[in-house]
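Input chain follows. Return structure tokens only.
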Amino acid sequence: MAPKAQKRKPATKRTDKSEVGIMSEPHHNMIAYLDTEDKIIEYKGIMKWLRESRINYAFTHQTTVYKSLIKAFWDSAEVVEMDGKEVIRGRVNNLDVVVSVETLNTMLQLGDNPDALYSVPLKCQRGCLLRMKCVGDILGNQLNKSWFPLRYKFLLHVLIQCLSNCRSGYDMPNNDLAGLMVALVLNKPFSISKYVFANMKENLRRIGSTT
């Protein structure tokens, strides 16, 4: 008797998601879990360090924001100048929503110095990566979090998930994000609010709404 033919599932039609659709997905709007009871022994030190860091509120504070509101903002967002400063202005429920570096600094409780930059020289980054015992090619243009010891791997994971504009591939931070990590580790001046604002502008460039 001939074997029964396996029924194939009908092919699903692939639909390319828009940039706004991607930014509205749950994995692009996450907060970090930091074990306050230190039950996860392997991460005890780095979690305690993160809880005491200046970015703790930014990536642990949970606020309910509906996907429709996120989409409405990005669908209407544009870079404009207000009172001599560059801002991103969107429209949500017939109200203007204006985001600036100062807004981000205040709402995320970052405590940024307004004069601080949001980059770290590559020479400084590479020196710190050596001290962190990174085992990969630090002279290349791309890092991988698998190259780091466990505590720094977790730090990078949190930064990539919570404070980056990665569209996919959550293992490889760019130089700007690596600079943020180095600045945090070395306690160097770094404007996280300027970094986030620059990422938001990059999102708009992808959408094609920059002016």
